[in-house]
Design a protein that fits this description.
single chain; 274 residues; mainly alpha
């Protein structure tokens, strides 16, 4: 006889659901409040807005400083994502398929940037890069962002590899395919959704990174997040809310595309096996 669970009680389930909804609202509300602030007609941040306007979006898209910052951030994010995707995929293959001493230590080191506070990483990278002349350079920022983004690709690809049936690749090898051909035409297509998901996570992480970018970027090349911090220090205007809203919708939109792509891939796979 199965023991009764507190969730078998409808009132307990309703109470737990209510508490979960309240917690989610508490976490999401500050982010949601940024959206109406970005459409404010006032010169300063004030909630609720007394008037509505698109002037702050126009100010963002017409200000050369903001455009230079978003262009610099996008350049770093694209380069970092390409490098991170390649390194993370190879690392996941080594960690999942490899059988060697110290694999757990290497995995811990690879995933460490997700656990170590970014302020500590920022100070460490700044001290190291200052000796190598990489502070304030595109190369230094790309290296730092790759370090921060690799764990996301490693986790997503590793999870997909652990679910992957190894007999598919073994069948290709038994039919005469070389390991490279088997990986290219069998394993890689099956891993493509996970690789794309990791790449999107890496892109969003790079674009949204603030602490490390603030330490390593220079006056000649400012990232979007550093520009936002500087404007908060000297001129708190609703442009900050407009930029935050654009980043929010870009992140949500990319994740929605990933979910739609994964759903399409699953439907295609089910239709193929039906």
């Amino acid at each position: 006889m199965r023991a009764r669970s507190p969730l078998d009680n409808p009132l307990a389930t309703l109470a737990l659901t209510g508490v979960a909804v309240l917690i989610l609202l508490f976490l999401i509300l500050p982010t949601v409040l940024v959206i109406p602030l970005s459409f404010s007609g006032e010169k300063y941040l004030a909630f609720p807005p007394k008037s509505w306007s698109l002037q702050w979006y126009a100010a963002f898209f017409t200000d050369p400083d903001w455009q230079e910052a978003i262009g610099f951030s996008l350049k770093i994010a694209v380069i970092s994502t390409l490098i991170t995707t390649a390194i993370g995929t190879v690392t996941a293959l080594i960690l999942v398929r490899g059988n060697f001493i110290g694999r757990g230590v290497i995995k811990s080191l690879v995933l460490a940037p997700m656990i170590v506070p970014h302020i500590i990483l920022a100070v460490a990278l700044y001290l190291a890069f200052s000796h190598w002349g990489l502070t304030g350079s595109l190369t230094g920022l790309v290296i730092a962002h790759v370090v921060l983004c690799v764990p996301f690709v490693v986790l997503t690809v590793s999870a997909a590899l652990q679910r992957l049936d190894p007999s598919l690749e073994m069948a290709a090898l038994s039919l005469g395919a070389s390991p490279v051909l088997a990986f290219t035409f069998v394993t890689l297509p099956l891993l493509r959704p996970a690789i794309l998901t990791g790449a999107v996570f890496a892109f969003i992480t790079s674009l949204d990174e603030a602490v490390v970018s603030y330490f390593l970027s220079g006056t000649a090349g400012k990232t979007l997040t550093r520009k936002m911090f500087e404007d908060i220090d000297f001129d708190v205007s609703p442009v900050i809310a407009a930029v935050s809203t654009l980043i929010l919708f870009a992140s949500v939109g990319l994740m929605a595309l990933v979910q739609a792509g994964r759903a399409w891939h699953e439907r295609k796979k089910l239709n193929r096996t039906a």
